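Hi D.,

Good news: the full-assembly prediction came through. Inputs first.
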Amino acid sequence: MTDSLQHLGKLVNSGKLDRRTFMKRAAAMGASVAFSNGLLSSSAMAADPVKGGLLKLGSSGGGSTDSLDPALAASAVPLFNNHSWGDLLVDIADDGGIEHRLAEEYGASADAKTWTFKIRKGVEFHNGKTLTPEDVVATLKRHSGEESKSGALGVMRSIDTLKIDGDNVVVGLKDANADLPFLMSDYHLMIQPDGGNDDPTAAIGTGPYKMVVNEPGVRHGYEKNANDWHPNRGHADQIEILVINDDTARVAALQSGQVHMIERVPPKIVELVERIPGVEIKSTPGRGHYVFIMHTDTAPFENNDLRLALKYAMNRQEMVDKILFGYGSLGNDIPINAAYPYFSADVEQRSYDPDKAAFHYKKSGHSGSVVMRTSENSFPGAVDAAQLFQQSCSASGIKLEVKREPNDGYWSEVWNKQPFCTSYWGGRPTQDQMYSTAYLSTADWNDTRFKNAEFDNMLLAARGELDETKRKQIYADMGSIVHNDGGLICPMFNDWVEGVASAVGGWTPNPNQAMMNGQALSQCWLKA
Amino acid sequence: MYILTLLAKRLVISAFLLLAVSALIFAGTEVLPGDVAQSILGQSATPEALANLRRDMGLNEPALARYFSWLGGIAQGDLGTALTNGSDIADAIGKRLYNTVFLASVAAVVAVPLAIGLGLLAVRFKNLWPDKLISGTTLALISLPEFFIGYLMIYFVAVKLGWFPSVATVYESMTFTERLSAVALPAATLTFVVLAHMMRMTRATILNVMQSAYIETAELKGLSAFRVIAKHALPNAIAPIVNVVMLNLAYLVVGVVVVEVIFVYPGMGQYLVDHVSKRDVPVVQACGLIFAAFYIGLNMVADIVAIVANPRIRHPR
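Then the structure:
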């Protein structure tokens, strides 16, 4: 689908196809309007990059505890670091498809159990060593050892064997998986010389920039990698990531020109930032979502009528308007939106319905109040959202008791422990990964304790299904199961909202991660 | 001779105090739920991995033995390595501490003379408009939360006027003047925060001394009012003023985390907070000890100044 879409995009840009026909055909291929639009504008507006200069990014999500080991990255600054010095085998393209990096080609056996990645030749690491398939295998092994603390360990567990065959790396899977290339785009899996076994924190890779300054929690400075294998990235001579965790300070730094782009503009102040001359707001629809999660195996939430009552009592539009200030889209109590491949709009949008909520609440036979826990850091605006929810609940006679918990320890003591709380998910590149991470009965992070054998079987069936139509149908059915029986109330999907100076060229939206999938620094340039 | 024994006594007391604090810090981190191995391995810890790590880290030794080996390490300048990113703590703290002391010094160099000068002026024009103006302004500044003053500075001085940068990140490669320009806004914010306390204390103690008979004599001799205050009243009021100054200096070193966050200044406060939130116990212990050393050291200096300045303490009857 991706390749043909890109082909269509090129036709439009060369004038062989008009925009209207493009959108029609793209829709026929199953791409959402937002995505086709993004594809069109990104290729249509491409201009010649300007070389040179020092490009600076101000970012939250960094601390003096950050390690350079790509396996341990868990927040924004380490993500941007990984993408500056390192490369993956494959990455997520702007349209949500696969983009080749250190794997030149890849292919699957008919049963989707054996995958072959052809490793690019003539690529040099920053230390002068030439990239070999051995480095790739060593990297993947380091992330999959039982001792590994890698954030990609869950992804790597499905791998059975790793073999080298000439220029190829052959990955044998325990079970069929049609999504393996998407799994390989996990941002921890940066290819390091000898897999990083010698020094995992060396920050030596094949990426567009070489790290020269490393002050965790303060700044990370880079110089251009003159031997970069990729011809069209790394435009600035130097790049710098400044850690600015305070929202106001970050916006002020952009406003006074001390940085050229900032990650995460709080939705509350977007309107003010937009008025600053020389600054643009870039809002990209992504897969991140804010959630209210109930444990479906714990009283009183084991009662599906109570769960449905709470789902109908949620005013989703109000959440998008007041919590996201419009920078997001409606959720439908499934963790999937149009940003995912094989998304189907078949599941009917649930809307706020106090009567239905009251009906299900009465049917559940529950009495007394329902306790929900929240904290400031469970998502931006979570406490406000909890109060709005409390009000919309009371319209149906449901007494919601909001318990505010401290930020410190929320992720270890409340989330995934208490039966009803607020939280967020950053999303995953594929439906399979999202569901396997948090909705499979045996998943470590099954934070709604959702255990449904039928659902599990469908998930495994879809994983090995190479027929796209059948696959899409299975995902649609799984979506309805979670929508009707799950413990997830998902009122909204949040956009990535970022601030960029007008002096920056080359910005293209990418739904996968913040700041153009972490690659804004290597793909943007400073206009002359 | 007597004064030397007095000073030696103070030094010994301070050393013991620091030792007691180190024991408290160690005991405090010891009673926290879970141990260091648990916090390194996190939720995914298997019993075998925990046992291995505990053995490797020597956690099976009795607490007393571990305390003395930790103390011994510190005595040799070895603070251990951070759990979170494996970096050498002494190395990392060295840079951070230098930054913190630099910012505190710049703020102190401005704030201390300014506060004492304003205090003297307020005494000279007691209950007249300059006194009221000085007291009013400084009290207003101390009443505003420091983050608010910080934001005001960023908005007006950095964004509107563009005189100084809002991001005060300092690097090793910076020249002294570049560093001064970088810390201008945080130093100004800190100055505003500590000004009132020192100024009010100067004013109060000097006014107290001004009641004495010898001040009246000085006035009757025909000395100018300001000369009486600066030459005759100030030396006798120095002890309590130095005490307040030292307290504020200690605050500048250990209590400026909010200002550090707002101005993105790489100092000790932010470093400590980052590691507390990740349960990085060795770093927290090291930071705690350094902060305690500063507090105790500065208070000791205040005591010594008081001893040297005051003949009544020097020559007790």
